[in-house]
Amino acid sequence: MNGTLASLLGYQPDELRGRHVESLLTLAGRIFYQTHFFPLLRLHGRANEIFLLLRHRDGRDVGALVNATRRERDGTVVNDCVLIEVRERRKYEDELLNARRTAEGANAALQARTREVEAANERLTEQAAELELQTEQLIDQTAELEAQSEELQALNDELVERGEDLEQARNGAEEANRAKSQFLANMSHELRTPLNAIGGYVQLIELGIHGPVSDEQRTTLERITRSQRHLLHLINDLLNLARIEAGRIDYRVERVIVADLIANVLPMIEPQLAAGQLSLSVTSELGLAARADPEKAQQVLINLLTNAVKFTPAGGTIAVDAAMTGSPERVAIRVIDSGIGIQREKLESIFEPFVQLRERKTEGTGLGLAISRDLARGMGGDLLATSEDGAGSIFTFLLAASPASD
Ligand code: ADP
After folding, report:
1. Which of 117, 177, 279, 381 could disulfide-pair with 376, CB 3.0 to 4.6 Å?
2. Helix (H) / strand (E) containing 395
């Protein structure tokens, strides 16, 4: 027994010389030694890692793992035993175990982490693919937008060009219109002078200044006069329209009492009313006032009343009424007749210059309503017509209302 084992059991090596090994074992150790360890050694010549409980000198148990080999030396059987104190081994084993556990833990953690990294990697790969797809889409969209932008630019260029053309065309048209109006104004003036001369000379003949006039000649002279007047009327109307269209009319808009406006024009058509055997009624809201140029408003009313008389057969009725209407509130002066009426589809065209629905049956120039509507609009109002063919017409002359505070 070497010094290490002796001191492990609390002895000096010399003290143990000659002692049977069994005396150094616990009871359990001795039983195990006899039943297991020793028979194994004898049978196989070796015994590995057999656990034996040894007894310390002070009575403590000392656990040891024994590796033993059996051999013969000089005719004597010798059992060589190497002991490892179990406490030590346990300690190493525990440490090893702990280390292993730590390593296993670390390994598990590593594996978990690896899995996480793999999953993250997969997600990243997916996202990268998605990003790539989105990038491709963006590139496509950018190309599309670029194409659209180019198209828009081209359209814009075209629009600018057209705008310039239009501007030119409009300037041209305005210029032409001004020239036309100027021409009409000049022509009207040039035509009126000789026409007045014709009228004057006819009157001189009629008065017999150039000798006696026969009945036949007088009839002819009357025809000449009628035609001369008609032409003069036409030219005056044309001159008016030309002036209105050239914007050369000034409107002096003021507060007008509507009842007065109507009362002022009635005497002018009374002779025609009597001649046409027509009856007239007038109703107007008390104190009704409008914003209008009085002279031009009268001209419109005269035109409307003259037409009503012209297009209503004998025995018919004409009514003028005035009231507030619509929102925003305006003054509506209506001229209503029981005359021949106007076909619904012709209602707008009668406001065009030179439109006459019944050719040459009546006197007139076809300019009255065109002028009247221009005048009504010129002073901030309007002129509208409604009719049932054969059941009379209603012309509505609208004007801005003038409140009492005006
Ligand atoms: P004019 O009376 O000189 O012919 P207007 O411009 O005043 O010209 O009227 C244009 C046409 O509208 C008339 O020729 C007529 O056919 C139609 N018209 C106008 N007023 C009436 C009315 N009250 N009833 C029926 N037709 C009308």
Report:
1. 381
2. strand 393-401
Cis ω for the linkage preceding 328 (within 30 of 0) = yes
Pairing assessment for the beta strands 317-325 and 382-387 based on DSSP bridges: unpaired
Does the beta carbon of 340 sit less than 6 angstroms from any atom of ligand 1? Answer: yes
* Close Cβ partners of 165 (under 8 Å, ≥ 6 residues apart): none
Give the tokens for residue 392: 């009379």
The amino acid occupying position 185 is A
CA of 198 to the centre of ligand 1 (A): 28
386 lines ligand 1 (CB under 6 A): no
Kindly report, residue by residue over 351-361, the tens digit of the pLDDT: 988 788 775 55
Q: Is there an atom of ligand 1 within 6 Å of 364 CB?
A: yes
Question: Each residue of 296-316: pLDDT tens digit?
Answer: 999 999 999 999 999 999 999
Contacts of 406 (CB under 8 A, 6+ apart): 255, 289, 291
Percent residues over pLDDT 70 in the chain: 97
CB atoms within 10 A of CB 146: 10
3-class SS shares of the chain: helix, strand, coil, % to 5: 60, 20, 20
**Tokens representing residue 60 in the block:** 């403590």
- Reduced to 3 states (helix: H, G, I; strand: E, B; else coil), residue 8 is helix
**CA 338 – ligand 1 centroid, Å:** 14
Determine if ligand 1 sits within 6 Å of the CB of residue 308: yes
Pick the closest to residue 385 from 399, 403, 398 (CA basis): 398
Rounded Cα distance between 95 and 89, Å, is 10
* Count of residues making up the chain: 406
Cα–Cα distance for residue pair 342/93, rounded to 1 Å? 123
b/e per residue 48-59 (b: at least 16 CB within 10 A): eebebbbbeeee
Angle separating helix axes 86-206 and 215-245, nearest 10 degrees = 160
- 392 touches ligand 1 (CB under 6 Å): no
